[in-house]
Design brief:
This protein has helices at 32-46, 85-102, 109-114, 116-126, 137-147, 160-176, and strands at residues 7-14, 19-24, 56-60, 63-70, 73-80, 127-128, 131-132. The protein is α+β, with helices and mostly antiparallel strands. A hairpin with a 2-residue loop joins strand 3 (56-60) and strand 4 (63-70).
C-alpha cells in the first residue's frame, strides 16, 4: 500500500456517457480502447443513481469510484481498491466546485465544451502524476483564472481560444447595439 494517496483518473462525461474531459494518471488502462471500455462501464453502472446532492461511492473492477452529477455533467474520480474514499471525495468536490466557479454556476455540457481549456487546466492544478496537489476549489479556480488572460489584453497576447471568445463577445455587443 502506498503512503501517498493516489488518483487513477478523473473523468467528466455528459449525461449520455460521452467524454468531455479526462485525465489518466496510471497505466492501468494501457490502450485507448481499454480507457473507452472503462468509461462506458463506469457510466453504465452509475447512470441510474441519484448522485445530485452528494457524492456517491462505488467499487468497480477493483477500483473505488466516487462520482457526482449536476445537470447533464457527470464527474468521476477513481482510486485504487485500498484508497481512502474520503480523500477521493475531497478531490471530486474540489474539481466539481472549481468547475462550478469557472463556469460561473452554469454547469452544463454546452458551457463545459466552450470552456474546455479551463476544465483541462483545472485537472492539471488538482492532480499531477496521480499525486493530489490541491483540493480547495477557490485556490484551483484562482490558479486557472491566472492562466486565463484578461479579455482586455491585446489579441497578440491571447491564446486562440481566448481571442475567439473576445471576438465573439465584441460581435455580440455590436449586434445588440
Amino acid at each position: 500500500m502506498e503512503l501517498c494517496p493516489s488518483i487513477k483518473n478523473i473523468l467528466l462525461l455528459d449525461s449520455e456517457g460521452k467524454l468531455i474531459a479526462v485525465k489518466y494518471y496510471s497505466n492501468d488502462w494501457p490502450t485507448n480502447s481499454a480507457k473507452e471500455t472503462f468509461e462506458r462501464a463506469v457510466f453504465t453502472k452509475t447512470q441510474k443513481t441519484n448522485a445530485r446532492t452528494e457524492a456517491e461511492i462505488t467499487m468497480f473492477d477493483n477500483y473505488v469510484v466516487v462520482y457526482k452529477f449536476v445537470q447533464n455533467l457527470h464527474f468521476f474520480v477513481t482510486g485504487g481498491e485500498n484508497e481512502n474514499e474520503i480523500i477521493l471525495a475531497t478531490v471530486l468536490q474540489g474539481f466539481f466546485d472549481a468547475v462550478g466557479l469557472l463556469l460561473r454556476g452554469n454547469e452544463d455540457k454546452k458551457e463545459a465544451l466552450e470552456n474546455l481549456d479551463l476544465i483541462l487546466l483545472c485537472l492539471h492544478e488538482i492532480v499531477d502524476g496521480g499525486v493530489i496537489l490541491e483540493t480547495d476549489a477557490n485556490v484551483i479556480a484562482g490558479k486557472v483564472d491566472n492562466h486565463n488572460m484578461d479579455a482586455g489584453a491585446p489579441l497578440s497576447e491571447q491564446t486562440i481560444t481566448q481571442a475567439l471568445a473576445t471576438a465573439r463577445e465584441h460581435l455580440t455587443r455590436s449586434l445588440l447595439q
